[in-house]
Amino acid sequence: MKRLLSLLVPLVLLAPSHASAFQHVVTNNETLAQIAIRYYGSPRFEAAIVGANTLDAYGGSAIVAGQPLEIPAPAHHRTKEGDTWFSLARQFLGDGKRADTLARANGAVAWVAPAENQEIEIPAVVPHIVAEGETVTTLSARYYNDMNKGWELDVYNGRDTKQRLMRGDVMLVPLIDLSLTEEGKKEARDAADRTRTEGGGQAYDAQRHAEADIPPLVADVRAGRYVDAVAKGNRVLGSGDLTRPQLAAIHRALLEAYVALDAPGLATGACTAWRANTGTDTRLEPRLVSPKIRAVCR
Predict the structure, then answer these.
(1) Which of 175-200 are b and which e, b meaning 16 or more Cβ less than 10 Å from the residue's Cβ?
(2) If exposure means fewest CB atoms within 10 Å of the residue's CB, which of 8, 46, 97, 148 is most exposed?
(3) pLDDT digits (tens, 9 = 90+) for 288-297
(4) CA gap 244, 273 in Å, rounded
């Protein structure tokens, strides 16, 4: 068994690490908890660093000044036409059956495809070498702070829930709820730039914030707060690279606000941008759309 572990540990360490993982060199008297707080904002994710660096192999090992550590971090990818959560899971997580994990990491469901040009987050995945007596329940408690999520590990690893873990087994642990501090995001972006990956997370953050900002924007228009809607809509448009559905929703709201504020030039521009981002026929039904809106959209 020791020989098996001696073979496994180098394989895990040399396996392609997550695209946005980055290196940290331990300083004098620094602890794993301090590193976790620095990059994740919580000591709870100390386990992620331990697992990523197999520090618990052979009964565990201490960290020392000058030691390089891999810091797990999510990566990002810009979707294209035809992408599905199943094809993306196959590409980035190795198996289309992990589509549900990838979709949940992005606040979505696997059976509804992501929007074109959406920047999605690829969760970091830690390879954990099972020690004597460990179970999916103990691993769930360790990595997720919830002993009832062991079934997620079984599903992700394609295991029968009744199958026992054996010492030396390698369990892949997707860290869906792992998020980075601003310092961590900068390090991850720098790592992504060095490896020429497809996204550093800026668009992902902007798109997630837009999802939260669009409903209040629409509510402002419906309530007649047109000046507030214009300010909010343009702020969201300038926040980053948004998806076409998001752009369409924002420009549609701005169209109504500009018409109400008697700004036909701006309204026409908003209508053009709305139509350009819908990707469908945007005929304006007279029964449903006011004459002023139909006029500026001719």
Answers:
(1) bbebebeeebbebbbebbeeeebebb
(2) 148
(3) 667 777 787 7
(4) 10
